[in-house]
Structure formats: C-alpha cells, structure tokens
Amino acid sequence: MLAPGQVARRVLGRHFEPVGNVYRRVFVNLNLIADFLDGELPNGAKIVDIGGGDGALVERLLNRRPDLAVTMCDLAPSIGAFLSDLHRARVELLPATDLTDVTGLYDAVTISDVIHHVPVDQRDSFFKSLATSCERWACRKIILKDIEPGGVRATLSLLADRHITGDKHVVLFSRSDFAVMARRYFPKAQRVSAVPDWPNYCEVLSW
Fold first, then answer.
1. Domains plus CATH for the chain?
2. pLDDT tens, residue by residue, 57-77
3. Which of 11, 83, 147, 181 is the most exposed place for a label (fewest CB within 10 A)?
C-alpha cells in the first residue's frame, strides 16, 4: 500500500513540486540551510550529496553557487525530481546507489535529513562506512543537517515522516547523538555546530 506522500506525488504529477515546497516549508526553510552550506563550501568544490532525494536543497545551493559540481547518491530508485533543467547538467545522479559504491575524488560531503531515517541499530555502520568512504574520496569535510528532537516543529516533522512519508521507524537524530558518532569515527576532526532554522541544525566536521 502506498504512503500518502507517494499517492500525492502520483495524483499531482507536474504540480507536485510547488505543492511539495509549500508543505516542506512547514518543517524547514531550505533557503536558510542553503545559505549555511554556501558559506561552508570552498570555491569550485566537488560534492557528494548523500540521500539527496528530490534535490530541493541541491537546487537552492546551485542557485547560489554555480561553481559547484554535485554527485547525488540515494538508495531510492528515482531522484532529482526537483532539479531544474538549468542545474541538472551539473548534477550526477546515482539512484539506487549506496555511498560505498560512489567512486571519485571529492572535497566535501553533504547529508541532509538522512540519518533520522537510518534505523538506530544501523547508524554505527553508516558512520563507519562514511569514514571509510571519505578516506577513499580524499574528502576532508562533512556537512550534516538534521532535526533536534523536542518542540512542536520537530514533533510535526516526526509525525509527517511516519504517517505521510511512510517511514514508520523514523527516530530523530540529535546533536548529542552526532557528537558521539563524530568522536567515534572522526576523532581528529574539528566540529562546528549551527542552528540556521530551529530545530533544524547543521554540524560541520573538517580535518
């Protein structure tokens, strides 16, 4: 049985993007997140965007940074639906692809609203794979965006993921949860925290 979000995508067709943007704005201001990413990414950077989904955040980032090149990987079979024709040529789409299967050299990794969808008992494995992949990519920077638990907006986001998106097992991933993973798998990294749009936070690791 399809989740309500999947039904809406099919019913709305080409109108799904504007409706989806209005719906998403309840939970996060992607323009504020893109502004933060803009300030953290070096000129001409090659980026791996893990779990990029429909590409809404990448689209906004490329509007600000025409110098960037993005490779987007996601386990989903179809990704990048919200990328404009203008930017699509600058994004390499890798649907149905695990991060461990991505090859090449990259300057930075971006991960937005992914970890709270990773089952809790698989998060250690995810970060271990991320650390190994960063070595292989010669990458020295990770920028993660997720949602701090607590408060009305975070609760609404959690309920939307469970009952509209259809992920019944979603569990929010706090900044303290991230700190544990950072110390465990990136012990030499410097960490910078920011909250561009509460409860949406960003964490930066660089080494």
1. 28-151+172-206 (3.40.50.150)
2. 999 999 999 999 999 999 999
3. 11
Strand blocks (E) in the chain: 46-50, 69-73, 91-94, 108-112, 141-147, 190-197, 200-206
**Residue 42 DSSP class:** P
The length of the chain in residues reads: 207
Tell me the C-alpha distance between 182 and 176, whole Å.
Answer: 10
pTM of the model: 0.89
The tokens for 28 are 């996060």
d(CA 39, CA 44): 13
Q: Give the mean pLDDT of the chain.
A: 90
> Distance between CA atoms of 27 and 152, rounded to whole angstroms?
10
The β-bridge relationship of strands 200-206 and 190-197 is: antiparallel
Q: Given CA atoms 99, 168, 20, 34 in this order, what sign does their dihedral have?
A: negative
Task: Please answer whether residues 116 and 90 qualify as being in contact, where contact means their C-beta atoms are separated by less than 8 angstroms.
Answer: no
User: Which residues face 63 on adjacent strands?
Assistant: none
108-112 and 141-147 as β-strands: parallel, antiparallel, unpaired? Answer: parallel
pLDDT of the residue at 24: 63
DSSP-derived secondary structure for 66-128: TT-EEEEE-SSSS--TT--HHHHTTEEEETT--GGG--S--SEEEEES-GGGS-GGGHHHHHH
DSSP letter assigned to residue 11? H
Q: Give the rounded distance of the alpha carbon of 53 from its chain centre.
A: 8
Contact 142, 111 (CB under 8 A): yes
